[in-house]
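Hi D.,

Good news: the full-assembly prediction came through. Inputs first.
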Amino acid sequence: MEVFLHITLCLLSILFTVSLAQAQLPFPFNLFGGGDTDYVEPFRAVKSNDLPTLYTGGWELHSQNSKVSSMHLILMPNRNKAVIFDATVFGPSLIRLPNGICRPVPIRRKGEKKSVDCFAHSVEYDLDTAEVRPLMVLTDTWCSSGGLSANGTLVQTGGWNDGGNAVRYLRGCANCDWQENQGALTGQRWYSTQQILPDGSFIVVGGRRMFSYEFVPAEGQKNTINYKLPLLRETTDNVENNLYPFVHLSTDGNLFILANNRSILLNPITKTVIREFPVLAGGSRNYPASGMSALLPIKLHGVNAKVIPAEVMVCGGAKYEAAKLAEKGIFLPAIQNCGRLQITLPNPEWKMETMPTPRVMGDMLNLPTGDILLINGAKKGTSGWLFAEDPSLSPVLYSPMKSAYRRFTTLTASTIPRMYHSTSAVLPDGKILVAGSNTNNVYKFKDVKYPTELRIEKFWPPYLDPLLAVHRPTILTSFTRQTLNYGQNFDVAFTLADPFVTRPNMKVTMYAPPFTTHGFSMNQRLIELAITYIKHGLTDTKTVSAITPPSSKVAPPGYYIMFVVFRGVPSKGVWIKIG
Ligand SMILES: *[C@@H]1O[C@H](CO)[C@@H](O)[C@H](O)[C@H]1NC(C)=O
Ligand SMILES: *[C@@H]1O[C@H](CO)[C@@H](O)[C@H](O)[C@H]1NC(C)=O
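Then the structure:
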């Protein structure tokens, strides 16, 4: 009887799987040909073949006390650690520098007394155990920027005061600490954006009253040249609203730059503005209006496509006048719309959509599946100390492949407000690390509506539905000892018990882990690789053969987290290096 029941259940589940698999055929794209197609509409709605789930996500408290508030957050490759840091100027954190070390505090005004600071403003955070190791930043990292270089070293630029023109390096090893090159940049890069380029170098764009960009010099060198960017001067309004500009590297090597409500395409080699895009109406999108922006997944269809479509999405932000009113304690509702722009088309138009709720200061993360997560922030006000109300406790899932009006899903709410100076990060296991929030100018835990937040949570997106766990592929191949080249075929072995592991049911994606601060995740990109074939082994072992990205314009050199995704359920990711 038991056996009979088991067989019946198996048959039922197979029938269910088959009917779902058939429902999405015929597959509308030429996914594997590439070559002669000039342009493939990247996000035409397709009937989803994702496994159905009713799970709207879950929350887990990972740490009671990260000791340092997470204004800036980045993962370190291959180490199962994140680096968290704040500013040096906000007074004591909850952890001292190791071995009784103190650092001299820079003198800012004449007559100021010499003093020392013995507290850490940066820690390395263990993603499993939540243990922290204090690190020592010397110069002020307040509102700075960063990114992982091709060899996995964190390169980190700017900040305030003595940190404004500094470049800092943090290598990945068990006892590595910050190394700093003060005076490396031509000016104060405070609230600027850093982006890796195809040759592995970094550009730093803007900053407060810095209407220019420059390229991070080689380690130990000092920069002498910067280049004017009139867009930044022209889009500065009475409260700026154009700091931390959104910068994305397009698939043709050009940079998309959005400041306030205007955007351009800049060629970083010739230093010319190639194109200005239409104005994105509705309000301001950058600090202190602090909207969100990400590149939608870059889909590769083969090695020879002439144009690889790239599409930018911008969501939320605040009305032009919101920060002035927030100063007076009046909190306007944040912007509720999003715009999508295909930046590889000659004359694209913004396509507008509406989020379930308004959002300012949120993060926009590329999930391993190709969906987008909107998380953190507030529904009213702007960035700035005490400038926001009504925290956005519910993350929202955005599925770019679904038909319009079905793309947004509101997920399970947290109980912890994550507003100004909060951050988040996609982890290799597919969970989301959620950290920080400090709307006060020092660490403050009492007598304020929104205390400094040192708890760290992990959010489980819908694909981590416990009922889907049996459909989760497990990657067997390790890539830690090799560097992949561009346009190369490679195999990934994985185990998965499901039958019907076919090309339309599978994705291989690679994710560039970003540097996240102030609602923008610098250098973030998700690339969906072309799959050439899938081989079935005798047991549950399978091999998917995919092609690495065609060039460093599509995927700048460095570390990525690779995922194998089966019908919307991603494996745990593995680190790969390309370049
Ligand atoms: C790693 O990258 C950093 C930043 O680009 C560079 O300064 C350093 O020399 C590199 N280290 C090695 C060992 O190549
Ligand atoms: C763009 O932003 C500027 C500065 O905030 C504002 O004055 C202008 O009206 C905006 N343009 C549009 C079309 O919304």
